[in-house]
Amino acid sequence: MTSTLITKTQAYVDGQWVSSASGKTLAVLNPANGEHLADVPDMSAEEASAAVEAAHKAFASWKKTTAKARAQMLRRWYELIMDNQERLARLMTAEQGKPLAEARGEVAYGASFAEWFAEEGKRAYGEHIPSPSPTSRIVTIRQPIGVVAAITPWNFPLAMITRKIAPALAAGCTVVLKPAEDTPLSALELAALAEEAGFPAGVINIVTTADPIAVGDTLTSHPLVSKVSFTGSTPVGKHILHQAADTVKKVSLELGGNAPFIVFEDADLDAAVKGLLISKYRNAGQTCVCTNRVYVQRSVVGPFVEKFKAAVSELKVGAGDQDGVEIGPLINKKAIDRVDQVVKDAVGEGAELVLGGKRSAAGELFYEPTLLSGVTEQMAIANQELFGPISTLFVFDDEEDVIERANATPFGLAAYFYSRDIGRCWRVGEGLEYGMVGINEGIISNEVAPFGGVKESGLGREGSKHGLDDYLEIKYLCMGGI
């Protein structure tokens, strides 16, 4: 059945489907059961460089294509993605593990960026500036920056690609993409649909590899690359920033998070439980914006924990293609070993295990939804990105205290809080040092809003009208002798 979902297993460079020059391949496995799905090319740094050169060559003509023509291709790409939604979702579940309902949602979310930027690309406006001289005129135009190197993660193997590629293409840039080695198949299927949508050779290039460091370093340091867009861990993001500095590339980084979720005593507790459940356990907790620290005001700790424990205990663990499953596998053995150790360390430091806390009988890479209470900021678990189905409960007494504690982290991607006091909503929303704040909402991502963080959680914004900016340069034209 899985084989019917896959149409491409070769890399895509300069309009050609190619194998690696060495003949080496990378195996793609289903994390739910270890099934071998396919082999894709294990490409080298030299082949990544060749892809950059192909993109640079294609840029010469692509940048001259009208915004309307680019929009028509992007719109067609959107339609093709949605026409193939079920197939792409099932493929994603097979290679990444997330429940099928979530995968369907991701395909639609990913497609929305192609639809959105098809329109936004036609609005890359310049401006006329009143001149200080009566004999000159000042105007600005916005032009595509050039070749874009995009490096994407495994947790959202389709949407993280379109969120970067769609605005780049809309702006008139060409792209070389390195997808995560755990989930390259979704990227190749997207490329096949883009080819069908009419994008010219060299405009989109997909380089698959088992050596992400060598290929990534090539892309981030190549002199023909003008822009790097990366989603992943903060340590890797810092390395990329260093790599890009030598050639002064424009860089967008969407990095790690340590999201607080604050429940005030005036909150709708049932709504807060529902929002937290979605924010924390979506994709088995393997999202950069998912809740890491749950702060509950002391006066409502008892009833909130009781409601939340009951909700978590009902989550169904299993393979993503099974009916009713809400928690799929972690991505690989390294991930589940890390999650298991994090929980053991927390209990050893004094946290109370309320629920879960062990590997699931569903399979080798499955972990039970876990709930820890009595957690303090002095514990290691409070100061790291969990990336697993673990909730940690903290208690707080007042508004100022919880804002200070929520901000006491080098990360600043997403934060959430529940309150029915409009004054508090403004105060806390403004006081939290995060790029995105969900107020009485557990899911905040969409194509029309700017996605991104502050502090060590990144640079730049994706989505919204601002998502086009990172792929454009402003040029000032001074016209004299008028």
UniProtKB/TrEMBL annotation:
Key word RNA-binding present: no
Any Gene Ontology biological process: gamma-aminobutyric acid catabolic process
GO molecular function: succinate-semialdehyde dehydrogenase (NAD+) activity
Entry annotated with the keyword Chloroplast: no
Ranges for domain Aldehyde dehydrogenase: 17-476
Active site: E254
Annotated keywords: Oxidoreductase
Entries under SUPFAM superfamilies matching the protein: ALDH-like
Pfam families: Aldedh
Family to which this protein belongs: Belongs to the aldehyde dehydrogenase family.
Protein name as it appears in the record: Succinate-semialdehyde dehydrogenase / glutarate-semialdehyde dehydrogenase
Annotated source species: Marinobacterium lutimaris
Taxonomic lineage of the native organism: Bacteria, Pseudomonadati, Pseudomonadota, Gammaproteobacteria, Oceanospirillales
